[in-house]
Amino acid sequence: MGTISCVSNFIFLSKNSISSSSLPFFKKPIPIFQSFNFSSSSSLQVSASSTSGKAMVGENDLLIVGPGVLGRLVAEKWREEHPGCQIYGQTVTTDHHNELISLGINPFLKETKTDQKFPYVIFCAPPSKTPDYAGDIRLAALSWNGEGSFVFASSSAPYDCNDNGPCDEDTPTVPIGRSPRTDALLKAEKVVLEFDGCVVRLAGLYKMDRGAHSYWLHKGTVDARPDHILNLIHYEDAASLSVTILKKKLRGRIFLGCDNHPLSRQEVMDLVDKSGKFDKKFQGFTGTSDPLGKKLNNSNTRKELGWEPKYPSFAHFLGVSE
Q1: Tens digit of pLDDT for each residue in 271-293?
Q2: pTM score > 0.70 for this model?
Q3: Of 43, 101, 169, 306, which shows the fewest CB atoms inside 10 Å?
Q4: What does the radius of gyration of the chain's CA atoms come to, in whole angstroms?
Q5: CATH number of the domain that residue 283 is part of
């Protein structure tokens, strides 16, 4: 491919290498970091050198830390709301940079040093990818200029309920020290709130080929109890909820994202079987003693934000009755 040259902290695509029709979002100069270039092997090489000056950032520009499945949907929905904005994606590797570019997301590596700040920042990266989750959240918060919104896509796991009982935004969280997973999430959330950002605790994310149902279907037989209650939210709905929170420009708040239709593990897989949309056949759950779950309800979140999901239940998504 061609090269990208830096002029006064702006980068331009070589007209000889990429046509404006193939990448229309590069028609205007992109204010970002120095020393970006595409190698002939098509992998994006990013220098970790720091920038000395600040580039111009639009009032609706968005930084997505961890532009995976959820982050890409957030980008899509954000661009629908703000057609002229620039969207940036911070990643750990260059593995998916070409994909991100094709989606109109300007990628750069986490190690790239810059003093650039953005009006809107959303952190979508999972804790499994880093040894210092709270530290990564802090770095993301430092990339926020405080003008729009800073949102952290967290998990509903910290709610302290494991008896299949009711749970909402006001349910207490588990104490620090109970498990490494919830510790990482709660410490990360604490950093977000210290920066006056917002947290959205998401239930189990899914789409047709991703989520608990897909994993269990692949396994065939699962050593877990079938009566454990779990909660779901479609990836598209998680993205629309996140965008709604970003647009509200709220400060220091915690919201909950779920479809308000909790199901047992067995009910989930019964719906999968009933839908007839999957080739594989699930064999069953064999566990008897693992913990139970919780029944999430986010009516308060919906009322305050004026938000409703596109897919009100897993059954609705699959096109079957419960």
Answers
A1: 999 999 999 999 999 999 999 99
A2: yes
A3: 306
A4: 21
A5: 3.40.50.720
